[in-house]
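Worked example 2:
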Amino acid sequence: MNVSFKGFGEQILTFETEAELKAGVPVKVTDSGKVAACGDGEVFAGFTAAPSREGLAAVQVGGYVCVKYSGTAPAFNRTLVAADASGGIKAAAAAEGKTAAGREVLVAELDSAGGYVGIIL
């Protein structure tokens, strides 16, 4: 690819965490100043920018991030996504009679062979 979105509008905050978190994991805010890994289908606040260390996690809450996806690739442009069961994201789906829950992101890149999607939070 001849273009790059890396570094665009990055916003990284430091939170406390009780569990070890790998880099690139979708996280949710669980308490005042605390985050934990998201479960399947949950709406995420951001992604860990690096592995957690000494009970602290750097969480990217804005800008461009490249993450793993599962299932059908999220559609380009603005779309709803949610955390998946494997520490990545998936296209948000609505249960029968309910509205889909997810976070709206801008899908800017897709690597379907590698299973990665580039999104702007």
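The two ends are 21 Å apart (CA to CA). The mean pLDDT is 93.
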